[in-house]
Fold:
Amino acid sequence: MQSTLYKSLELLIVFVLIPVSFAINYSPWLKLGIGVIGFIYVIYILIKIEKLKFKMSKYLNWKAFWKTTVIKLSLIIIITTSFVWITDSTQLFNVLLSKPIKWLVLLFVYSFFSVYPQELLYRTFFFKRYRLLFENENLFIFINAILFSLAHLFFNSGLVLLLTFLGGLLFALTFVKTESTLLVSIEHAIYGCWLFTVGMGDMLGFPT
Structure:
């Protein structure tokens, strides 16, 4: 399972064909089955083939991580708050103010059952598995962001594709810098939770 051809076909199936197929209208149960089987395959490859150890590094630079994350989050807060205010001010912090318990539950579910699996697949697996297929690291990061955006094709929204592409760039750069699934998952969760909080949840598939 280490040949360049095998990995190239694997990348095509896991990161292109399957996500594109999810944008097609067919049985949601079949989609769920494909997703579960695919994720089990990814975990198997990480553990048995790539010999990944699921443990937190003792050498994480938490101070640098929080500093850069807070700076990026501040910019995101300004941009997204302005966007929601201009496009539909009735949605601004709507769920937080009207359904605080639901807001808390959704943030928890999203962070642990959506964000972490996404980062395990799109950063940990992708970078561990395919890095040697690309000589140019900038191109590799760009492709990772494109494929992360493609995974959200089923939302049928150009704005979602743009946001997830930009998010993909941020997360890929964080992973390159930290090589930590934990840190990039925290960053992803923070930004995603903020988008839901500020009033962009409907667009991103959060039930409101």
About this structure: The helical segments are 4-22, 28-49, 62-88, 94-98, 100-130, 137-150, 158-178, 181-200. The two ends are 43 Å apart (CA to CA).
